[in-house]
Amino acid sequence: MTYKIPENFEVLYSKEQIHEMVLQIAKKIDDAYPEGEEIVCVGVLKGAWIFHSDLVRALSRDVQIDFMRAASYGHGTESSGVVRILKDIETDIRGKHVLLVEEIVDSGRTLSFIKERLRASEAKSVRIAALLDKKERREVPCDPEFVGAVVPNHFVVGYGLDWGEKYRTLESIYMVKDEVLR
Questions:
Q1: Sheet-wide strand order for 39-45
Q2: In a domain, 110, yes or no
Q3: Contact in structure between 64 and 121 (CB atoms under 8 Å)
């Protein structure tokens, strides 16, 4: 079942385009890690859950699954700048490769914070896979190793991305027109 898309949403990536991005990212990940090396794919909740699910199923190897939940947004469209860990991983990552899976890298604050925290847990490596990278908004250094697309500085929703906890389940990714956000 699908619901009516608001008139002020413009398709940025269709579900078919997203599917192709996921497959391309999975191929790059498969090629980047040696055969037989353990990988723990850590989805960053809530936004990355759909991308995480699609990505791990597109990989050609078995991986361990875990999740973290971090918040810096609240219900608005701007980050507060303060990162809080609301749910930590449960997997022992010592000596294992960790792949952080995020739907979008924006300011970089949250992922940079999480990445450093996981590195301190003696992971063999910590890399980031992001469906979208909003480089224009970067406030701290945080460049994902695996990226589906670089997006312009517009507010986007769908495929896990929300606006005040709404629109996460849209199959495509939509750009919200600026006049709506004002």
A1: 84-87, 64-71, 39-45, 97-105, 125-133, 146-150
A2: yes
A3: no
